[in-house]
């Protein structure tokens, strides 16, 4: 019985000691987490022939899938209605819908090769969004 009590005391003190020693360490490694790139918030939008470009911004979250979106007035020369887009909604399939204030899709984009996005819909829309640092 004395051996059991002694063994239980060792286990208990060992567990408490390990718990107390671990409390001084940060839960997140600042070196590793600081090296993870943050998603771009600003993009240059250009049409396929490069004849027009404008600046667009992905803004603050409005839901778990959607963010505010803004585009300069000259974005209508890149794609009609792009200047009126107000939300950036990320779907589970990897597509992103840029929608106007009434919720109608202006463009559907997907991550392209490199740091940016390319249009999927509507057909014939050849717009690229490239990240701006």
In short:
The protein is an alpha+beta fold and 133 residues long. It is 20% helix and 39% strand.
Keywords, please?
Lipocalin; 2 domains; eight-stranded antiparallel beta barrel; 2 helices
CATH architecture assignment name of the largest domain = Beta Barrel
Taken together, the total number of domains comes to: 2
Please tally the helical runs, counting DSSP H or I stretches of 4 or more residues: 2
Structural class: alpha+beta
What percent of residues are in strands? 35-45%
Return Rg in Å.
Answer: 25 Å
What's the arrangement of strands in the largest beta sheet? 1-2-3-4-5-6-7-8
Question: How far is it from the N-terminal to the C-terminal residue, by CA?
Answer: 69 Å
Give the SSE string. Answer: HHEEEEEEEE
Question: Which blocks of ≥5 consecutive residues have pLDDT under 50?
Answer: none
How would a textbook summarize the main sheet? 8 strands, antiparallel, barrel
Approximate helicity band: 10-25%
Which CATH C-level class of the largest domain is it? Mainly Beta
Number of strands: 8
Shape: elongated
Mean pLDDT: 81
Any idea of the CATH topology of the largest domain?
Answer: Lipocalin
């Amino acid at each position: 019985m004395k051996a059991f009590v002694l063994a239980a005391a060792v286990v208990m003190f060992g567990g408490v000691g390990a718990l107390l020693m671990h409390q001084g360490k940060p839960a997140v490694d600042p070196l590793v987490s600081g090296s993870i790139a943050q998603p771009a918030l600003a993009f240059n939008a250009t049409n396929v022939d490069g004849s027009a470009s404008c600046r667009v911004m992905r803004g603050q979250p409005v839901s778990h899938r959607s963010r505010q979106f803004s585009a300069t007035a000259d974005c209508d020369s890149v794609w009609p209605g792009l200047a009126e887009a107000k939300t950036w909604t990320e779907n589970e399939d990897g597509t992103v819908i840029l929608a106007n204030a009434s919720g109608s899709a202006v463009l559907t984009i997907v991550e392209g090769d490199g740091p940016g996005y390319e249009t999927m819909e509507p057909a014939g829309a050849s717009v690229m969004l490239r990240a701006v640092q």
